[in-house]
Design brief:
single chain, 2 domains, 6 helices
């Protein structure tokens, strides 16, 4: 997906207006077929860890599971594009250091069991 996103940035859109075109780019890269969405979700199970609030959906009763996955994929693509355009990405070392700090904090606050109990999974 990152290669398609970068291809759009370099070859398909005016470089001066990339940020304005980001919604269109993310929309064009979001899968329309349910099978492709299921494969995308299956590649990394953590992609299924989103809340309905993250997806900014209306209370439309016709929304189905694939609509939720599609919106999640759109958000992931848009987020990648935004981070690339605004240089808001971390190196692996920065990411690793941040994760270690988070794990130390969790351990100091009672451990993983207490941490997981404190999360609201509703």
């Amino acid at each position: 997906m990152i290669y398609l996103l970068l291809d759009n940035f370099v070859n398909q859109y005016d470089k001066e207006n990339l940020e304005d075109s980001l919604h269109e780019i993310a929309d064009s890269l979001t899968d329309v077929y349910n099978n492709c969405l299921a494969l995308w979700l299956n590649e990394f199970n953590s992609r299924g860890c989103f809340t309905l609030g993250d997806l900014e959906l209306t209370d439309d009763p016709s929304i189905n599971t694939f609509d939720l996955i599609r919106k999640s994929q759109y958000n992931a693509i848009y987020s990648m594009g935004y981070q690339i355009l605004n240089h808001q990405y971390q190196t692996f070392e920065e990411f690793h250091e941040e994760r270690i700090k988070e794990e130390i904090k969790i351990e100091n606050e009672g451990g993983w069991t207490d941490h997981l109990r404190s999360l609201d999974f509703k």
